[in-house]
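Write out the 3D structure for:
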Amino acid sequence: MALSITEDIRSITDLKRNTSSVLEQIHKTKRPVILTVNGKAEAVLLAAKEYEKIANAFNLLKLLITAEEDIKNNKYKEVRSFFKEFKRDKKISG
């Protein structure tokens, strides 16, 4: 999702005048559009599906960070001992 500085940076005024065009662009390119006010970045406009992908990736990353911290702090079990304990606790034979 490389940003194109000639296409993906647009003013709020341009958004107001050409809303359909800007929306079409984000759906076609799957890239965000940076919206500016007085030449300074103010907001990012992103297609809803692209936002969902980013949000899902971020949530997965948060889980991985927690898992890495647990490993660092020796808060884990080897898979064989985990399943042995799990089967015992759930009274599963085999």
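The mean pLDDT is 94.
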